[in-house]
Amino acid sequence: MLDQLRNGDVVTVTKYDRLARSLKDLLEIVETIRAHGAGFRSLAEDIDTTTPAGRLVFHVFASIAQFERERISERTKDGLASARKRGRIGGRPPALSTVQKSEVRRMRDEEKRAVSEIARIFNVSDRTVRRV
C-alpha cells in the first residue's frame, strides 16, 4: 500500500494501533505516508494528520498507547514471576505421563507398532507419539 500512495491520498484505518506494533513503527509508517504527500486518518480516535492539530493529537495518542502496551507487558511479567515463586508452572500440561511415555517408546521401538495405532490407543496425535 505504501508504495502505491499518491499526493493527496489519505490512509484510513479503523484504529491506529492496528497499523503498527510499536510507537516507533507507527511513527515511521505515518512519516512514510507523509513523505508521499498523503495523510493518515484513524476512525476510532478521529485523528486526521492532514492538519497540525491532528498531528499533535496523533502523537499524544500514540505515546499513550505505547505506554499502556508496556505497562501490560510489565504486569504480565510480574504476574508470571509471582506465580513461579508460588510453584506454578505455565504452559499446557503434558499429554502423556512419564509412565505413558515409556510405554509409547516401548510399543514404538520394540513392538514396532504403527505411530497412528499408538496415537489412537493413548488418544493423542501422531506428532505427540513421534516426539516421545
Q: What is the chain-wise order of helices and strands?
A: EHEEHHHH
Mean residue pLDDT: 89
Share of helical residues? 55-70%
Major sheet: 3 strands, mixed
The rough form would be described as elongated
Strand order within the widest sheet?
Answer: 1-2-3
Measured by DSSP, the beta-strand proportion falls in 5-15%
Q: Give the C-alpha Rg.
A: 26 Å
Q: Report low-confidence residues grouped into runs of 5 or more.
A: none
Count every helix, treating DSSP H or I runs of 4 or more residues as helices: 5
Write a structural description.
Helices cover 55% and strands 8% of the residues. The chain has five helices and three strands, in the order E-H-E-E-H-H-H-H. The protein has helices spanning 23-35, 52-85, 98-109, 115-122, 126-131, and strands at residues 10-13, 39-42, 47-48. The longest helix is centred in the middle third of the chain and has 34 residues, at 52-85. It is elongated. The two termini are 46 Å apart. The model has no long low-confidence stretch (mean pLDDT 89).
Could you give a short description of this structure?
The chain has helices at residues 23-35, 52-85, 98-109, 115-122, 126-131, and strands at 10-13, 39-42, 47-48. It has 132 residues and is mainly α. Strands 1-2-3 form a three-stranded mixed sheet, with helices on one face.
